[in-house]
Design goal:
This protein has 275 residues and is an alpha/beta fold. 47% of the residues lie in helices and 12% in strands. It contains ten helices and seven strands. The radius of gyration is 21 Å and the shape is globular.
Amino acid sequence: MPLVVMCGYPCSGKTRRAEELKVCFERNTDRKVHIVGDGALGVEKNTVYADSQKEKNVRASLKAEVERKVNRDDVVIFDSLNYIKGYRYELFCLIKHVQTPHCLVYCLTSDEVSSTWNTSRDAAEQYTQDIFDALVLRFEAPDSRNRWDSPLFTVLKDDTLPYEDISDALFKRKAPPPNQSTQSQPLSSANFLHELDKITQDVLLAIFNSQKTSVAGDLVTVPGATEKIELTRSINMAELRKLRRQFISYTKMHPTENTGHISNMFVQYLNKSLH
């Protein structure tokens, strides 16, 4: 049922806190508790975090595993860095779709403390100093004012885990309502499929043509959308077509009743996928 997202620097105590939470849930409820984390994938973290594409693939695999585990009965604890706010937003969209509550547990440490804990590990379990420093530099701290980071529980290294408050947030709070981009609806008529095909094709052509006069960093206006494409690099048509096919497949399963929203939904999808 609920999802607990762990967050923090490398070696900030996330796994220890996740295990504490698991024990508390199993002792005080009759729910099954699943911990999803990097360790289950058997990846070499220094290799992964040194390569942006490998890291992206690992994040996608972890998110898919969370999605498989989340249901109306069990508790899922996601034990990973979860240091990118856009990724935390994707997890928030996931729980909105499943209609289950979630919370964020932020293990707050200084980089000096985390670095000390890192070097005290067995050599095979350590982050290299370069990777550690890079992850700390890229870390996007959670903010309770963001709905995807709320409710937020910040835990210092010597704090007692606020189990009761976390439990109340998960079991006594309603799930966030689904929105049109996450709410499953019966597939609409053939007209919807025609509009989906036409609108996404028009967006692709607008992006492709705009690149003839645009440079990295420009915002591109596309037909029918209030949001703009953020061009961070040159994108070839093969990549755009692949993303369009993925978006169409997803939207067929989760259609919107208002075809006027398709352009903005596609722009949002492209902006997330291209960064």
